[in-house]
Write a structure and sequence with these properties.
The structure holds 2 protein chains of 2 kinds.
Chain A: H1 9-20, H2 29-42, H3 47-63, H4 70-82, H5 88-92, H6 112-115, E1 117-119, H7 122-127, E2 148-150, H8 157-169, H9 173-186, H10 192-220
Helix pairs in contact in A: 2-4, 3-4, 4-9, 8-9, 8-10, 9-10
Chain B: H1 11-32, H2 40-54, H3 64-81, H4 83-87, H5 108-125, H6 130-141, H7 146-153, H8 157-178
Helix pairs in contact in B: 1-2, 1-3, 2-3, 3-6, 3-7, 5-8, 6-8, 7-8
Classes of the chains: A mainly alpha, B mainly alpha.
Chain lengths: 232, 185
């Protein structure tokens, strides 16, 4: 297209034609939708707030599951319901060998030991088969982006499930639920048998919680009125 | 362009359908409005969050994309106003447009030509101020009528015509400058 070509409307139309074509679906679309739905679910004013809710929710639930405030618990529930959560990016979409991982966004370093993620180094990335271009410590650090990879000492799905079961046995269903939530976040696509165990435990927890709620409701119901004396 | 049918359906499903239909288009629209490619995901997220919140109030008075453009324009304006974006120099000129569909089966030379044209259009569009850019983009590229634009952006139709007239003239001038012999394009 040259300067002279633009002198007619027809040529301008030709120029605009390509820009009018329907664009392809961006790669980030599925994750983006889940994040928006999660943010809407917890009523977060922005997704930055959502991230904070999820981060703090995970941190609090790990240390003090029973004392987790409702808004954090809601953040947890939202993360489970929509599949957005700590480590969800890598767990859901493990990059194939040799694919750069610049766009992977994972939690802040301060919580690494809480949810099983450690800061990335070129060494531990290379061990896992990732391309390390642009990562601090690698040969080309001009486009360094902070991100992390699963920590080798991260708890296994079985360990989390057993911990949840133990909490339930101890009579702490909320703690069990949060441990199970963590398990679902870290392992969003468990194998067949394992998934049924999760569902089973989920149902048990719900049953216990329902029983507790029912009991609490019964305790607050005013006692039946003393029957009025029968008139002679 | 037909109006969106107002179907009675689950709000979550309604949002999902809307998202799937428009996420790619939204990404391109934001790029036209001056959002850098590296920020497209974050800005799209903010726009769709607004859309999610306001979807129950959408009455179908205009096309859904026209309605969504209003949110995109507002978010893009905020994005440009942010201090961190003001400080950094926008390398608007010659920014690479998002790629075309992978399976369009175009010959490499044709695809290259189309890419160059899109780059030109994007660069010329970005010489306009945001208000004119939104109107020109909606009219010339998305095909909305002046009255649809007026309804979606809540501005008088005469304002739409006025922005469109001066915007198109500036757009054409910018294209002429960019395609001068010896320049890119």
């Amino acid at each position: 297209m040259t300067h002279q070509d633009l002198n007619s409307n027809r040529d301008l139309e030709t120029l605009l034609e390509a820009e009018r074509l329907e664009p392809p679906m961006p790669a980030f679309a599925p994750k983006l939708r889940r994040r928006v739905e999660a943010a809407a679910l917890v009523g977060a004013a922005s997704t930055t707030l959502l991230d904070t809710v999820l981060e703090t929710g995970i941190k609090k639930s790990w240390w003090n599951p029973v004392g987790t405030p409702p808004w954090l618990a809601l953040g947890m529930v939202a993360s489970v319901a929509t599949g957005v959560g700590i480590g969800a990016n890598l767990a859901e979409d493990p990059p194939p060998q040799g694919v750069p991982v610049e766009n992977v966004r994972l939690p802040v370093p301060s919580t690494k030991h809480l949810h099983g993620f450690a800061p990335a180094t070129s060494t531990n990335l290379e061990k896992r088969g990732y391309e390390t271009r642009g990562i601090p410590g690698s040969t080309d650090s001009s486009q360094a982006v902070p991100f992390k990879v699963p920590h080798p000492r991260a708890p296994s799905a079985e360990a989390l499930l057993q911990a949840a079961q133990r909490s339930l046995d101890r009579g702490e269903p909320m703690a069990a639920r949060l441990l199970l939530a963590r398990c679902k976040i870290l392992f969003p696509h468990p194998p067949e048998g394992f998934a049924s165990s999760i569902t089973q435990l989920d149902a048990q927890i719900q049953q216990v919680l329902d029983d507790q709620a029912q009991k609490a409701a019964g305790a607050t119901t005013p006692p039946a009125l003393i029957s009025a004396p029968v008139s002679p | 362009m037909a109006l969106s049918p107002q179907k009675v359906q689950d709000p979550a499903q309604r949002f999902r359908d809307l998202f799937d239909r428009n996420v790619a288009w939204m990404s391109r629209t934001l790029q036209r409005f001056g959002v850098h490619r590296r920020d497209l995901e974050d800005v799209s997220q903010e726009v769709f969050l607004l859309i999610h919140r306001n979807l129950p109030t959408f009455d179908g008075a205009c096309h859904e994309r026209a309605w969504m453009t209003a949110f995109a324009a507002r978010t893009a304006a905020n994005y440009r106003r942010l201090a961190r974006h003001r400080r950094q120099k926008f390398s608007d000129e010659l920014e690479e447009p998002a790629p075309l569909e992978a399976n369009t089966a175009l010959r490499p030379d044709v695809e290259m030509e189309m890419r160059q044209r899109r780059r030109l259009v994007l660069t010329a569009l970005r010489t306009l101020d945001l208000k004119k850019r939104v109107v020109v983009s909606m009219h010339e590229l998305d095909g909305f009528s002046a009255s649809e634009i007026s309804t979606a952006l809540h501005i008088p139709t005469n304002t739409v015509y006025s922005r469109l007239r001066s915007g198109k003239a500036e757009f054409r001038r910018a294209l002429m400058t960019l395609t001068k012999p010896g320049d890119v394009g």
